[in-house]
Amino acid sequence: MEAAKWIVNVLHIIFALSIIIIVLLQSGKQAGLSGSIAGGAETFFGKNKGRTIDALLGKYTAFAAIAFLVTSIALYMLIDRVG
């Protein structure tokens, strides 16, 4: 039971760090003044590429958040049983 607790704890830390990294990699909804200036160029040069990367990062964030929640519940149950 102690080994399972360590494995779930390591996975929990990995998912926590991945959520932090993925969220920091995502672009903001409002890019400010530089986003409004570069917005015209973005319509000609690969606007869809940015959308797909943001969509992919959004999916990774959702997966990491769900995995973080599952490992949180698993840790609670393992700590409650072990004491």
Automatic annotation (TrEMBL):
Subcellular location: Cell membrane
GO cellular component, one term: plasma membrane
Lineage top rank: taxon: Bacteria
Record GO biological process: intracellular protein transmembrane transport; protein secretion; protein transport by the Sec complex
Membrane topology: Multi-pass membrane protein
Main localization of the protein described in the UniProt heading: membrane
TM helices/strands, residue ranges: 6-25, 57-79
One Pfam family named in its UniProt record: SecG
This protein's record includes keyword Transport: yes
Molecular-function GO terms, alphabetical: protein-transporting ATPase activity
Keywords carried by this UniProt record: Cell membrane, Membrane, Protein transport, Translocation, Transmembrane, Transmembrane helix, Transport
Known role: Involved in protein export. Participates in an early event of protein translocation.
Family matches, as PANTHER family: PROTEIN-EXPORT MEMBRANE PROTEIN SECG
Similarity field: Belongs to the SecG family.
NCBIfam families the record matches: secG
Protein name: Protein-export membrane protein SecG
Native source species: Ruminiclostridium cellulolyticum (strain ATCC 35319 / DSM 5812 / JCM 6584 / H10) (Clostridium cellulolyticum)
